[in-house]
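## retry 2 of 3
previous attempt timed out at serialization; input unchanged, resubmitting
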Amino acid sequence: AVLMHEYGHVVARVDPRSLQPWKARRRLEHDEEEGACEVLAAEWLMLRREVRSARELRRLTESPDPVYGEGYRKMAQRRAAFGSITDWLEAELFGERISRVKGPRLK
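## retry succeeded, writing output
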């Protein structure tokens, strides 16, 4: 979950396909970026279906921290409006879907 969270910071700054900095991205507020990274970590934990993962997921969702916990809840609510993680991230970072890659979208 920690690795997925940190990967979220990378995706917020560089295109993961080219590793080049995004040229025209929207800057997220600190709580939005941390919250988005926590949402990515939570999505990964939900795929694991292990007791330890369930405990970690509960820690994320119930965190009282104003940046990580509140940021997670804010971004999880916004994430719920999208069908895929990719579409959600592109909307958050660019205000629109920018992906030109054909094929399946991450759900």
